[in-house]
Design brief:
This protein is 84% helix and 0% strand. It contains 20 helices and no strands. It is globular and about 55 Å long. The C terminus is likely disordered.
Length: 404
């Protein structure tokens, strides 16, 4: 949660960060440069996924998780303390871009080892619920970031928020660094020494045996990450496109992410009882059917009711299938390549589609002038995800709880 808070908080303050580090004289140009820097954090995620993922398979989950967290803490502190463009000129955006790339490397190597760790410590009957805490922790992070945004916008004048208020949100993440490092040092290791000495070439040769599942996982993760990062963009969308207040815009993100936290855990709980595939397919189909009508309502009647209820409904339904998928993908991979393969596939999907999602939506809104543009992109992503989920194997244990 702490690591994702550090990474995600940037998106909530993209407008203020753009004015601080990328002044262009054009609101559109400044926002696009700020979002491009947000996307720079995704460029290095596949590298982090490969390096730290394989490191976790060979050396252990705990050392990999400690290293990724330390790198994230260093980069968030750098962004928080970097002077503005007006103070140090071109050095400011260069430093911020470099810090975002370190963040991407750290987070790229975080998800695979963490997800593998949760699957390995959980009993089979509760594995999906345990693994669900990985995406659920992301929602806690996004909710915390939105909550901080609401508090800052409610208590600070726009000028104060622009000048230094947004930095406070980053400082909070840096302050939590010592606690996170201490917490991870206490974790028991799940990788045994025979597994730890596997050569990195073994990952590639063994991964080839699972190319079908890997390809489907890449499609599902692409679908999920587009949905996630377009949803996080709703703070900026609500302000720039729908012209609602900053407080309501942050409140939408707060409620949406809070509901997705509930949906993530509910999806894991249901996947342990009903199997993985039903929990993937049916909610994903519902998301496909509900997205466009919901955006029509929001665009034609922008306000607290439509924004909170509309995005709240999409959030709860859309979060159910992906926790079931996380359990499916970890169960489909052998332990000695699980961390590396999961981290790499996840990072490639996020880098390709998460880092570009907000840029694509901003561009679509700009060139079409149609506020429904985000819905088009979400529909395409949901359709691809549904097809891939339908083809994924069922990996749940044969014996359900209560049948043993």
């Amino acid at each position: 949660m702490l690591e994702f808070y550090d990474f995600i908080t940037y998106s909530f303050f993209a407008i203020q960060i753009g004015h601080t580090f990328f002044p262009t004289g054009s609101e559109y140009g400044t926002l696009m440069l700020s979002l491009a820097t947000f996307g720079a954090g995704f460029v290095t995620r596949p590298i982090g996924g490969i390096v730290l993922g394989i490191y976790s398979d060979r050396i252990g989950r705990r050392p990999a998780m400690l290293l990724s967290f330390a790198l994230m803490g260093l980069s968030i502190l750098t962004i928080a303390l970097t002077p503005s463009y007006q103070s140090i000129g071109l050095a400011a955006p260069i430093i911020v871009i470099a810090a975002r790339m370190v963040q991407g490397f750290a987070l790229g190597g975080e998800v695979g080892p963490t997800t593998a760790y949760l699957a390995e410590i959980a009993p089979p009957a509760h594995r999906a619920l345990a693994v669900a805490w990985q995406p659920a922790s992301q929602e806690i992070a996004a909710t915390a970031g939105a909550l901080v945004g609401v508090i800052l916008t409610r208590t600070m004048a726009p000028e104060m928020l622009q000048s230094h208020g947004w930095r406070l949100a980053f400082v909070i993440g840096a302050v939590c660094l010592p606690f996170g490092l201490w917490m991870r040092r206490t974790l028991p290791e799940t990788i045994s020494h025979p597994l730890a000495v596997k050569e990195s070439t073994g990952h590639l040769s063994q991964a080839r045996r699972h190319l079908g599942v890997i390809a489907l996982a890449l499609m599902i993760l692409a679908s999920g990450t587009i949905s996630t990062y377009v949803t996080q963009y709703m703070t900026t969308y609500a302000q720039n496109t729908l012209h609602v207040s900053s407080t309501l815009a942050f409140a939408v993100s707060l409620v949406s992410n809070g509901i997705q936290f509930v949906g993530a855990l509910l999806g894991g709980w249901l996947a342990d009882r009903l199997g993985r595939k039903p929990v993937m397919i049916w909610p994903q189909l519902a998301t496909l059917l509900l997205t466009y009508p919901t955006f029509l309502w929001i665009v034609h009647a922008p306000g607290a009711l439509s924004l909170l209820a509309g995005f709240g409904m999409l959030s709860i339904v859309g979060s159910l299938p992906f926790t079931a998928f996380y359990a499916t993908f970890t169960e489909a991979l052998p332990q000695n390549i699980r961390g590396g393969v999961f981290a790499t596939v996840y990072a490639v999907a996020i880098a390709s589609f998460g880092g570009t999602a907000q840029l694509v939506v901003t561009w679509l809104l700009h060139v079409t002038g149609n506020p429904l543009a985000p819905a088009w992109y979400l529909l395409l992503a949901a359709g691809v995800g549904l097809v891939a989920m339908s083809l994924m194997p069922e990996t749940a244990p044969v014996k359900r709880r209560g049948q043993a």
